[in-house]
Amino acid sequence: MYLIDVAAFALLTAAGVLAATGRRRPAVLAALLALAIALVALAMLHWQAAPAAMIAAVVAILVQRRRAARRVTRVAARTLFVLGILAAAIPYYLFPLFSLPDPDGAYPIGATRIELVDTARRGVLEDRPDEPRRMIVQLWYPASSGDGEPIARYLPRATIVTDAGSIARNAFHYPFELLHLAAVPSHARRDAQPAGGSHPLFVFNHGYTMYPAQNTPLFERLASHGYVVASINHPYDSARQQFADGWSRETTPLVVTPAMAEALGALVKDQSVAAWRRHFPAYAAAAREDRLMRSTAAWLSDTRFALAALERARPPALAGRVAHSVDFSRLAFGGMSFGGGIAAQACVEEPRCRAAISLDGVTYDPAMFDRAAGRPMLWLQSDWPRYPLYPNQLRDPRTHPMDFAFRQWAAAAPADDFRFRVKGAGHLAFTDLVRMFRMRTPPAVYGTIPVAEIDGLIGDFSLGFLDRFVGGRDNGFPHMQQRRHPGAIRHVPAR
């Protein structure tokens, strides 16, 4: 709850107490004030305040009546009032008005978003044949000052109905349940002036059906430590994102071909090298004909285009001033789930990339298997023995399907390949969705890890990894992070 919500509940409770002690006029006044404050909260998109507003209105009407009531009636009314207060608190519990963790870096944070159009690519995914590819890139960056500009909200209010509704549907919830994300404050200032100096760039790809802001605590923390973060949305494969001119596209349901499902199932069921050598040709043939490979090509092209657009951007536009502060020779990629695989592949294909981070990432491109990455890689993976990614996946902590990606099967894991299994973490624990719902659907997708622990773990490992391999600092990674987070268990793929 935020302060305004607490005030509404405090006044509503006071109205009940005053009415119970016979002080009707102050009770009516308190109920009306509670109603007014709850309505203001509703106007701020705290939809959780709706039950409190209704109860306040009922209390004001009933208390205003001066008819005497029998004792039984009074007891029943008080009981119903208490139950009503408890019921009004349920939406706040199930769908919390959360606060983001405080960044611990020295820089104030700015945030903005830019819209890009790639006229050279048309008919991408479900676009019409003559329609150019469009995408949104959200930026978090070191700012010159922490004052003057408005605080950025978690999601923009102007597009909240479109954006939050799609995010909720993709997470198996009702669209209204995330409207309050437009009221959640971040630690960034919207369109703040960028700080001077030269800063490394971290390019992020969201998870399949997800959205660019899905790891805001990580992005804010990196920006506070001097990184520029560019998070790309991929229309049709992301949650719906509305552009300034009203253009938007809903998520295309993913349909995997039967051949792909069968071939992938055979790989994850038996994760020995011999089995993979036996089943991989069938998988490669099926993957090349699957929708996932069209998405892979589109996302990689989106990433290359966004990077090139940032490089071309010049002042005086804000995006140009942010880009002017970027040292493009200190480049890293990151992503989650499908986006984690894209990040690793983009790093392999981009000569300037120094490192990549994959948050429970997966790749489906046959070309990325039995192939050395040649770059430092950080893999933070879910607790697959408890919460496997795939049906029939082998629940052996010694082996994971991505052990066969971005490394050569016959070679030992390179020294700069860091893979960790995070105990208690389900797949979506690596997103901000883990803080948005108390009743998570399905629970195994989130796991049992506390929000504060997964926030700290992702931030500590990511920052330490980037500081070492992009910043060139001898900072003791990963031993310091392992001591701080013993639930991160080092996983070394077997040959």
Q: Any chance you could write out the topology, listing elements then pairs?
A:
Elements lengths: L2 H18 L3 H20 L6 H15 L6 H24 L14 E14 L9 E11 L8 E3 L6 H11 L14 E6 L8 E7 L10 H9 L3 E5 L25 H12 L3 H16 L2 H22 L5 H7 L1 E11 L1 H12 L3 E7 L17 E5 L35 E6 L28 H19 L9 H6 L3 E3 L5
Parallel strand pairs: 1-4, 5-6, 5-7, 7-8, 8-9, 9-10
Antiparallel strand pairs: 1-2, 2-6, 3-4, 10-11
Helix pairs in contact: 1-2, 1-3, 1-4, 2-3, 3-4, 6-12, 7-8, 9-11
**Could you give the distance between the termini?**
51 Å
Mean pLDDT: 93
The coarse overall form would be globular
What spatial order of strands do you see in the largest sheet?
Answer: 3-4-1-2-6-5-7-8-9-10-11
Weakly predicted, low-confidence segments: none
Profile the largest sheet.
11 strands, mixed
What multimeric state do the chains show? single chain
**Relative strand content:** 15-25%
GO molecular function: 1-alkyl-2-acetylglycerophosphocholine esterase activity
Protein name: Dienelactone hydrolase
Pfam family, one: PAF-AH_p_II
Keywords: Hydrolase, Lipid degradation, Lipid metabolism, Membrane, Transmembrane, Transmembrane helix
